[in-house]
Each structure stands twice: as structure tokens, then as C-alpha cells.
């Protein structure tokens, strides 16, 4: 018989684990901070169950699994829902092979962390995974923990077949960096619109903002990866000012799919970037910028006034690199994204919830309820949160003036290595939790917090799965990427925009792709 739902209040009251961790040459008593536990409180589950977990969601696959008596987080999970937890950590790059071997041998783990929605759908189609739809209503707190679009990613063929794995981090890696010292010298204000940004970039290029008497500065630099994809290298952030983005961004408006890379507004975005190219405000080295490290080197050298970079470049280690490379620490500040002509103000789109927890179809109802109860505890118990998100109290974090203080950045190299295994349990950390990152520069935390206001919802196009019969998919995508680059650089005039659209239809069977999108959107309930 299916057990009754376990309430959040009961789960919250169950935590309280103390243990002694032995190390090399010393011993340190570490007590869980979880409160509200009555001494001797027993689990609401009378029968202990053995749960096997395939955890490729760990944040450090190379870290060894500690003995149970030293593993505080494991003890907390086991006590919370009366289980014997056996956790497998596959080596980096070997997870798929390992999991498929287990499945082929009939030894399917009870709880499986999957890194992509494609894997989630594939294993469900193969009959490996359970349908969780009948059970999730019993866990309202778990449902509230993740956003609607994260849960939508768990939906497949009208059923919920997974639980979100962990929050993706947004609002930090795509920050709008600008040289405030250059703005001051040129008596200019922080730009707020695309036109204002263009004027600032032009001034940074032409008016010798570093005062060295040389024509050696530029307003902007971006790049594209080795596959020719413009995403995440800066140019795509400029496109977001116009509400569009490559290479396969698809929205839904008025009950129809909208392909943002062929939307008329994309033509405007490309015209804007082409104007930048014509005005020579873009560092010509952009064509070689195909890794984040190369863009960082440009940031450190201090000859570009505006870039899209990670807010963590404000941290002391990176500031030191700037001083070593350029001889100074430029006054970089993180500013809000521009307000585009259609009202868009986007720093980035919320990352798609690709990762998930799935449960074996071999698990009976009791085991499914027990696993979901564990996930409910792991992700929603407020007292337990710091023990999983930050690590061990007294080592990785502590209470300072009644507030949690992450101390990880203060640990010695030896102490960090000694407790690497806490990374196996950090999944509950919230994607907008600045304390988790233990920022050393308050400006980094401020930028991270401010950017959250400009993280737009995930696009529904991320829910699409590849059609194996679409033999033109790769060529079509390559053509789109190459065409956008040609338009923005002027190698192909924008007067040929209609030719681009026609070629997509005639040579790359765009209509067939559109039909596939419509079919999948209807199945997902996104359009009628």
C-alpha cells in the first residue's frame, strides 16, 4: 500500500547528526548545525530501505567517498528518511559507459543523476525510468523549490519523469563589464541604451582613454567558439538588446513558434553589430577569440573598454593578474544590460534545466516515496541547507553575528583537499546564493545580485529533442551560424537577408524542421 505523504514539518524536525572526523595527525569534532531535532527522534519510516545512488551530479568526481562514520552529509540523509545509502561516483568522462553497463546487467541504480534531458527521455523510452507523476503531489515543498520551467524540463510525453537535479547558475558569467575610469576621463555616463553604448564604444576607440598618445584601444571585443557558434562570447549579448539570439533560440508567441535567429529583429541586431565593425570599435582580434581564456587576456591587458565577462573577474586573484599583465588594476565595473528598442533588458536567459534525478522503474511504490522524501529533505530543509550547500560547520562555514559565513575561501590548501568529498553533496545550493560562492570582493556579490534582475526566463525551444530523421540538422545549423557571422561582418550585405531565409527553406528544408517544432510544442502543451 502506498504510504502517506511525509510532511515538510516532520522532515525538518528530524535532522541532528554529530560525529568526529579523523584526519592526518589531528581530530576535530564537527557537529551538524541542523536544529529543531528532538533527541532520539525517530524517522517516520519504520523499515530501513537500501537505496543505491548513481551520482554523476557531484561537483568533484575525483574526490574519494569517505567512510560512513566520517561522512556527515550521508549520515544526515540516512537518518532523515531511514535509509542505507550506497553512493556510486563515476569517474569523469565514464559516467555514460558505467551507467549503461549497470543497466545492461540488470543492476539499475535506484536513484540516477542525469546530465541532459535527452538522456532522461532516452532512458525513459527504454523502460529504465519510472513515471513520477502519481507521487509528486505528495511533495508540495519540493515542487515549490524549483521554477515552473525547471519542472517543465522534467515533463516528457505528458508525464513527469524526473526531479530537477540542481539549479544552474545565472547572472554571473555574462556580466556587462565597462571601464569606469575611461568613462570618467571622457566625461561620459554609464550607457543605458544601444545608441548610448555605441557612442561610448566609439569614444573608447577614438579618444585615447588610457592617455598614452597611441591609437591602441577599442570599444569592444567578443568572439565565437571553435565551432563558429556566437553564443556566450559577447556578440550574443549585444543581440539580446534586440530580443533575439542565435543559434537555435525558439520562443512561443500567439500560439506560434518564433525562431529568433530568423526574426526580423535579428536583422536589426546584425545591422547594429555591422555598424560597430564599420566604425572599427571592435578589436580585430575578435576572430581569434575562441576560448574564454583568450578573452580574459584581453580583459587583463586593459586595452578594451567594454566586454561581456564573468563577474568573478572582480575577485582579488584576477585583479592581481590585471596588475601583473597591464601594470594596473583598471576600474572595471559591472553595469545593467542596455534597454533595447523593444524594451528588452536581458543579461542572459535562465539556463535550461537539463540535469535531473530519475528513479528506476524497478523501484516499487514504497521505494519511490522514500527516494522522493530524501530529495524533499535534501532540497527543502532550511536547517540542513548549509550542511549540504557549504560543507561542514566549523570548517567550511560558521555562524557569525547570527548569520551564516562561508569560510571555504579562508581554508588552507591542505584543508580543502582533506574535505574534497563534501562536493558530492552540494546539489541543493541555490543558483542565486552569493554566500555559496564565498566572494571575496563585495563588488562581485553586488554584481551577482543585481544581475539576477535581468535573467530572463528559459526559452521553450530548449525542450525540443532532436529528430533522428532530420538529416540536414547539422548542416542547417552550420549555415545559420556562418550566415549570421557574414552579415554582422559585412561579408554578406544585409540586403541579402531574404536570400538567407529562402535558402533555409529550399536547401535546408526549414519547413520540415518547423513542423517538427510545432509537433513537439503541441505534445508539450506549449501551443494548441
In helices, the fraction of residues equals: 25-40%
Stretches where pLDDT falls below 50 for ≥5 residues? 1-41
The helix tally amounts to 20
Strand order of the largest sheet: 4-3-5-15-8
How much beta, percentage-wise? 5-15%
Structural class: alpha+beta
Organism: Paenibacillus odorifer
Keywords: Cell membrane, Lipoprotein, Membrane, Palmitate, Signal
Pfam family, one: SBP_bac_8
Protein name: ABC transporter substrate-binding protein
Structural summary, described in words:
- The longest helix is centred in the last third of the chain and has 17 residues, at 473-489.
- The strands form seven sheets. The protein has a five-stranded mixed beta sheet with strand order 4-3-5-15-8.
- The radius of gyration is 26 Å and the shape is globular.
- It starts with 7 loop residues before the first helix and ends in a 5-residue tail after the last helix.
- The protein has 528 residues and is an alpha+beta fold.
- Residues 1-41 have low confidence and may be disordered.
- The chain has helices at residues 8-12, 72-81, 95-104, 117-125, 140-145, 148-152, 180-185, 194-206, 235-240, 264-278, 292-301, 316-326, 365-380, 385-389, 413-418, 434-437, 442-451, 473-489, 497-506, 510-523; strands at residues 18-22, 27-31, 49-54, 83-88, 111-114, 155-156, 159-160, 163-164, 175-179, 250-253, 256-259, 306-309, 332-335, 348-349, 356-359, 397-400, 403-406, 455-456.
